Amino acid sequence: AKRVSSNLCKNLSTALGVEIGKKNLRSALEERLRLTKQIPTPVLRIPSCQDGEQAPSVTTLQGCNDDPCFVGREAAIAKLNTLVSERKKLILIQAEGGVGKTTLARHYLRTQGFDIVIELSMAKERQNISSVEIDEWLKRYFNEEPGREFGISLERLRHKLEDKSKKIGILIDNLEPALEMVGLLKIIVAMLNF
User: Fold this and answer.
1) Percent of the chain beyond pLDDT 70?
2) Residue 192 vs residues 92, 95, 132, 187: alpha-carbon distances, Å
3) pLDDT score recorded for residue 61
4) Which residue has the higher pLDDT, 34 or 27?
5) For the range 88-97, what are the long-range contacts, defined as Cβ-Cβ under 8 Å and sequence gap of 24 or more?
């Protein structure tokens, strides 16, 4: 976490042109936001650090111009595009906390033409998906009435997810604690080697 914090401060210092630390982070960002509102097309340049390597300055990701503040993740987006083009059905994004895994996944799913994106956040104490969630997904995403029994609802959801006419993305956030509880995380990481 300290390394991530240090890299963030360095990147922000470079991007904002002022030394950033704990004490002035908020005021510097607020000032930048105030100035940005006065500029018609803001450009934010932040060098990206991944695994200790310094990346060149960037403006926005190609194909991701809807969010000018999402910068410096070209390598990650390229890796995701490669995995998807290789027809990988399951992609594990694993890194230390606070580096933006969820933000990256949400951004990718939002900008890649998915017809439906289902998001599930697994809390630390949670191991199972409830029947209420399955029923809600069927109604919200597929306009499908749930079954009277959980098994029927699951089967309906499975059929909807197998529909090749729709591009469906599923984001399962904070899955690690649930997998660790059943001892599967190390096995999955070893198999995927992401």
Assistant:
1) 66
2) 7, 14, 31, 9
3) 34
4) 27
5) 90/192, 91/192, 91/194, 92/188, 92/189, 92/192, 92/194, 93/194, 94/176, 94/189, 94/194, 96/1, 96/4, 97/1
